[in-house]
Amino acid sequence: MTVSTAPKQNSITTHLGNGLKVIAIENPVADIVSARVFLPVGQIHENPHNVGIFSLLTSLLTRGTAHRSSLDIAEAVEYVGASLGADSASDYSLVSVKTVSADFENIFTLATEILREPSFPENEIELERKLTIQGLRSMQEQPFSVAYKYFREGMYGHHPYGFSSMGTEETVMAMQRDELLEAHRQHFRPDNMVVIIVGRIDPERAIDLVERLLGDWAAPEYPAPAPRLPAVDSHAYRIVTPQETNQAFVILGYLAVSVTHADFAALKLLSTHLGNGLSSRLFVELREKQGLAYDVSAFYPTRLGPSQFVSYIGTAPENTSVALDGLQSELRRLCEVPLTAHELQVAKNKMLGQYALGKQTNGQIAQLLGWYEILGLGTEFDHIFQANVAAVTIEAAQEAAQRCFVDSYISILGPATAVEALR
Amino acid sequence: MSSVSDVSASNSSDGGRFKRPFPANVVRLDSGLTVIHQEIATTPVVVVDVWIKAGARYEPETWTGMAHFLEHMVFKGTEQILPGMFDAAIESRGGLTNAATSHDYAHFYMTVAADDLAHALPYLADLLLHAAIPADEFVRERHVVIEEIHQSWDDPDWIGFQTLSEMVYGDHPYSRSVLGAPEILQERSPEEMRQFHRTHYQPDNMQVVITGGVSLDRVLELVQTTFRTFPHRESCPTMGSIAHPRLLTNPQHTLALPRLEHGRLVMAWLGPGIDDLKTACGLDILATVLAEGRMSRLVRELREDRQWVDEIASSFSVQQDCSLFVLSSWLAPDHIKEVGQVICDRIASLATIPITTPELERAQRVLCNDYAFSMETPGQLAGLYGYYGTLATPELSLAYPGYIESYTIEQLMPLAKQYLSPDHCGTLALTPA
User: Fold this and answer.
1) Which of A61, A174, A412, A414 has the fewest CB atoms in 10 Å of its CB?
2) Band of residue B20 on the pLDDT scale cut at 50, 70, 90
3) Is residue A224 part of a domain?
């Protein structure tokens, strides 16, 4: 499907005097307005001693400001049935708002207050600290999460991508209020921020609202601290974790290029070809033809830093070795045997069709375009990416596979009797 | 392809205006097939969502898991369509397809570009009406379903939900896992599955919902030519008549599980089925007052103030024969007893002390907006119409916000008294082994 699901756009993009970028897109179809405020700060700004700080910081934004308590904020949002949340990811942090259009101004005003004036109350820090640690522990309950944790650690070492975005129990326990205040002061500033508003709202009015609420916010005189990241070296790695589960998990992957690299579109296509949908290569070969798995797939996240190309399968313990062979041979095949013209075209249609379907709601549109902005790619990357995908050739796809699939990282988890032999 | 337990009544329509005219077309064809259509001119995509009264509740006990396994096998083709051809036909043009099975229904859906509908619909209709269920594919796909079951056995929340279902639903088929059990699936044959298919995949059991960039005339023309020859009707073994489930005791159980990092406390009550949606909506309000959002009573008391739980949440879902009201807590095992006591006390007080007006208004806004927010895409809309169309009538899908807004605080107390009794409640605790 090559149709565009984005609304017929009446939109404005502008910069305020303090450097803040604002994008407003009118979509009158539903009585809904979604907004996202993006900041270019996330895991990439963390180090092994403070991993999880931006996750904790953003979780605390809705838990108190200079003027309101946690309950005041919850009350304001819940009594109009809106949503207001904050979160942080690998390369960015964001505050998101969703309301019926009549409530938008009111709730967006509150969103700007939590951005500018969070108070980080000590009791709320303790509560979020406890909830975060419990969140980290509960990931240990899911076999895939455990296998993936070890995979990620082996791949990234001390690079922040090697940790859960929530950090570790040790770092979360140690975090102090003044560190949160300092991180907020340094990174939450208008000159590197993007606000995007999509929905049933006049774009001029949306821009005026942002100007009124954030236009007087002065950026600090020093620049925002840049990430200081350790190099990530590619090296073959394998870890085997015995655990008495009903199912074994095998994860096989490679370090992969960032969103700005020339191979990005080709690798996105290869991950679609391998792992996306009921007609994907892994699904057909390992599930449909061999009945090895219910869950088998691949993913390649869009990252500003060194990304990863990952395939995985959940299988019966006695089939662990066959499943690993299956993943290895499918990835090797992409290096050795060029895709046919038909396979390539199918992957493109699938990729572009689903990409279009991922831009149906106001929230999805705001998320995608704002994300591209904050990664420094600009909203035009929406078109550039689709053009790049359409332009990938058979040779380019094979060469991208050959460049990427070099040092394999493998994590295997399952009952000792099934996995010990695979060490 | 997955199993789903329920669709929440709150996952669904319009920001709370009463008595809007029903915006979709509902057409009953001569064959008995129901077609539900809504044109959305602003979108270039079309969603087809076919709902069939062929969920796990229709299985005899010895065929547990058949409905869900059949949902997998429908994708394995017909005399005309080889295994995998349908998936490739849809996905190679950029469309999406999948399916899900619950106790009350199975449904199969696809999203395609409007121009591709005429190409795609004949495939889906042929699969649903003429599933071949080839014997070799049956054996192979059974491995996949058994892997799906094994995966669920590694999920403590799934185990908790399944155990609780067995405690509260008694002999009703809602007590059984939609996925079935490996040993029962091993005994089933392709011919038995064909029987199940020919019995239930009949026009009077089926709703074809089509939303998006396509007109009614075009939809009727396409459906009439593609959903034409249904299988010769059979009658396979069934459950026989099923009484609506009632919970007249207060079963309690503790389960020790390996690798558990939190304890869980899950408490469940039964409410009316879809035939009393208004009462169900009242219970949905109470669930929201109790444990939806930071302002709700139990989140505030147990997570924010006392900090005895790491999380507490309510879920309320309506099914054909009853609704299910659940309060789930994630907590340290040593708090299970006192948290259970607090929950019982707070539940009991709902029957004697009216909730406040702001509490009611908050719950009404939250539920009506959630409903409005869940109708943003053609796919969400199709799911909503299909769900209500299968369990009741498509028109009922728009009743939800009106019912929610109609409640007064006085009307909620008798509901709490009737349905949320501590003597008619299932309680399950999960603790680390």
Assistant:
1) A174
2) low
3) no
* Residue B254: strand pairing partners: B429
**Does residue B268 belong to the interface with chain A, where contact is any CB pair within 8 Å?**
no
For tokens 């061999």, name the residue.
A290
| Euclidean distance between CA atoms B394 and B17, whole angstroms | 18
In CATH, the architecture of B31-226 is 2-Layer Sandwich (3.30)
Whether B370 and chain A come into contact, CB under 8 Å, resolves to yes
A292 chain-B contacts, CB cut-off 8 A: 143, 147
Instruction: Name the band, by pLDDT with cuts 50, 70 and 90, for residue A338.
Output: very high
User: What pLDDT, on a 0 to 100 scale, did the predictor assign at position B42?
Assistant: 87
Smallest Cα distance from A64 to chain B, Å: 13
B430 touches A at CB < 8 Å:
no
Please write the tens of the pLDDT for every residue from A365-395: 999 999 999 999 999 999 999 999 999 999 9
- Whether residue B401 contacts residue B371, with contact meaning beta carbons closer than 8 Å, is answered with yes
* ipTM score: 0.94
Q: Which letter, b or e, does each residue of B55-92 get, where b requires 16 or more Cβ atoms within 10 Å of its Cβ?
A: bbbbbeeebbbbbbbbbbbbbbbbeebebbbbbbbbbb
pLDDT of the residue at B19:
55
- CB within 8 A of B239, min separation 6: which ones? B57, B58, B59, B60, B61, B173
Tokens of A85: 């949340």
- Per the structure, the complete domain to which residue A54 belongs is given by 10-214
Q: What is the pLDDT of residue A3?
A: 46
- Establish if A243 belongs to a structural domain: yes
What per-residue confidence (pLDDT) applies to B5? 38
Instruction: Give the CATH number of domain B252-432; options: 3.30.70.670, 3.90.550.10, 3.40.50.720, 3.30.830.10.
Output: 3.30.830.10
B311-348 residue pLDDT tens: 999 999 999 999 999 999 999 999 999 999 999 999 99
CB within 8 Å: A3 and B113: yes
Residues 198-237, chain B: which have Cβ within 8 Å of A? none
Give the nearest chain B residue to A243 (CA atoms): B259
Write out the two tokens for B255. 């389960």
In the structure, what pLDDT confidence band is assigned to residue B241 with cuts at 50, 70 and 90? confident
Q: Can you list the positions of beta strands (E) in A276-400?
A: 293-299, 307-315
